[in-house]
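Box 3.1 A note on notation
Throughout this textbook, protein chains are presented in two layers. The first layer is the amino acid sequence; the second is a token string describing backbone geometry. Keep the layers aligned when reading.
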Amino acid sequence: VSRDLREMRVIKDPDGYRLPDTTMTEQLDSASDYIRSVTAAGSNLIVVHTAIGAAQRVAVELDRSEWPDVVGTISGDDTIFIATTGQPANRRVLARLQPALDR
């Protein structure tokens, strides 16, 4: 069932499960409303702090965005680790996430 839900790109939010009804960019923009801080942690790791309970939603949208610089994400309740392909990629991802902090 989990694979089927993933293939269908079903989203789990506080109200339950739903199908995506917006583009990936709009979904990431929406998810970025929950980002509280973004910090580099070495040359290929970024730590993102989110509102409580929002990390998984933000991480899913990051994964679905398929940024070439992002190798993968690991999320908890309010923290996401983003693995990047190296230091230049780290800088590019930080720059892409920065607008979320300026809101």
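The chain is about 40% helix and 30% strand. The mean pLDDT is 83.
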